[in-house]
Amino acid sequence: MSFAVTAYEHVGIRVTDRARAVAFYEALGWREEIDLPEHSANEMVNPAGVRINLIFNAAPEAGEHNVLQDQKEKLPGITHVAFVVDTLIGLIAALAKQGIAISEGPVEFADRRRTIFIRDPDRNVLEFNELARPA
How many domains does the chain have? Predict the structure, then answer.
């Protein structure tokens, strides 16, 4: 192969309400770094340098579901984004303080990671993982 993927740069998350989405992701530690009005988007970064883009052009949906996760018919697409955290207990405490509900977990996957899932105000699924420490 003549190239190598060396890092993950960012994920784009489509949302309906800019102010509501920015406030939610700020509560998780991201801050807006770049406004991209010509693209109806922004770039947000957290203290560790993890980046996301919020894309402000989603059409509001009736109901409380995510079209990729909650419908019986499974459509192609990215179903969630997964982040690594240094401590799941610390994240759970921070979520409780912010009033953000955990939609699933904590669960353990193959002794490799402990995980929780949450949903943003547009029902986008976010996964947070504490990786097992090597013995």
Answer: 2
